[in-house]
Amino acid sequence: MDMKKRISLELRSRTPLEVTELVVDNCRSSDGEVEGLTDDFKELEFLSMVNVGLSSLAKLPTLSKLRKLELSDNSISGGLEALSEKCPNLTYLNLSGNKIQDLSTVKALHSLKNLKSLDLFNCDITSLEEYRESVFDLLPQISYLDGFDQEDSEAPDSEEGGEAEDHEEEEEEEEEGAAAGPTGGFDDDDDDDDEEDGGVEEVGLSYLMKEEIQDEEDDDDYVEEEEEEEEVDDDDEEGVQGEKRKRDPEDEGGDDDDDEDD
Q: Nearest to residue 32, comparing CAs of 62, 87, 76, 71?
């Protein structure tokens, strides 16, 4: 995607005057120059043009409010005086991965009085003897070079200009938030599930209790039936014994008659 089209997409229905941060990393500059960026971006404070094929900054518009500029992984070898003229309030500048070879090229940044952090990592200039000492001497206003101060203490994150990463993280968070839906949606579902589970448990307990009660009643009925059967058996036995007792005298009487006949 070319730089003009990318900038147009990044506007997202805004006017250039409404834009304070602009990230156009990994698009393409057709002729090695800045394209699609105009003086209308008056409120721009952060600009990232990483790996876009830049070899010159001659067409960079005047951006008086620009504080942080990311230009890493391009083919810039000189012409840094354009930054002093068009971006006089820069505090952070990343030129790592470019083709800067000489201290004289860096000296052009001397006029950037507010510059506090400069990154030249992976440029040929870093192989020069006493590179760090020389750059700190040429640019006494800077506090950090390649992420470290003169005592080799690492720069805090705020000085290293992590806006591009923050911008991407914010977009990811927004996308995740949209995918997750309204806050609390999952809690409602969980509550419903809990209520349903509770209902099932209550029904289960009631059923078990009823079963227990029914079993006890059945047992009582069974015991009563057994007792009734036993009583009936006892009555039958008594009846039989009574009959026997009633027949016994007759039997005896019969015996007596027999004796008399004899």
A: 76
* Residue 54 to residues 51, 71, 91, 103, Cα–Cα distance (Å): 8, 8, 21, 21
H helices within 63-184, ranges in order? 81-86, 103-107, 131-138, 157-160, 163-180
Six-digit token string for 11: 């506007």
82-97 residue pLDDT tens: 999 999 999 999 999 9
Give the chain's radius of gyration (CA, Å).
50
AA letter at 31: D
Helix (H) or strand (E) run with residue 47 in it: strand 46-48
Distance CA(238)–CA(170), nearest Å, equals 100
| pLDDT value of position 249 | 46
* CA 115 to each of CA 132, 143, 148: distance values in angstroms, whole numbers, following the listed order: 16, 8, 14
Residue 54: which of 42, 65, 38, 70 has the closest Cα?
70
pLDDT value of residue 156: 87
Predicted confidence (pLDDT) per residue in 189-246, tens digit = 555 555 555 544 444 555 556 566 566 555 555 545 555 555 545 555 544 444 444 4
- Please state the length of the chain: 262
**Residues 75-104: b if buried by 16+ CB within 10 A, e if exposed:** ebbbebebbbebbbebbbbbbbbbebbeee
